[in-house]
Amino acid sequence: MDGYQHQCYLGFSSGKWWSSHTLPEACGFRAHPGWLALKLRNRYAPGETMLATVHNHQPTIQTDGEDIPLISSYALTDGDTVSVFLLSRKLDGVHDSIDFEDGCIPVTLPLPFSAVTAITRYRLESPDGTPVDPRANNRQDLAVVIGAEEIDPATFGSDFVLDETTGAEAGGLPPGGLA
Fold this sequence. Notes:
Layout: H1 33-44, E1 49-51, E2 60-63, E3 66-69, E4 71-78, E5 81-88, E6 94-95, E7 98-99, E8 108-110, E9 119-125, E10 145-151, E11 159-161
Antiparallel strand pairs: 1-4, 2-3, 4-5, 6-7, 8-11, 9-10
């Protein structure tokens, strides 16, 4: 359960095999980050109708001649509620001879409505509410939790920009961020 890697929950146990949580014998019953990401959808994103998303300017990295997107987005609706998931695959530092600097991705969401009554940002974060390193895990102690923050609806405009006033960082979606 090293960070946000691919996970398989076949065993649902701790130790050598993949699992969803540490067991009480491992100094506590802590959900692994992959399980927390699934919980974000199941608990905090109502709706069964997926909406189309379009990436106008999407950063990519080329691997084996193929452009791999560094950000994904998913949108769901349930009546008057819209949930948008953003996933950054970009990490800070140098990877594949490319300097990704701080790893943030600037994000602007043009949304198909002009007013909101409430905005809640949920994300995987450190227990103190700061962005979590995507390399973190919950194996030894609680390092990754689901956090929530109410965002002032006045920050909403025709385009919703992710920055430090809207629950992200000054540079946008943080490295490995899931919001």
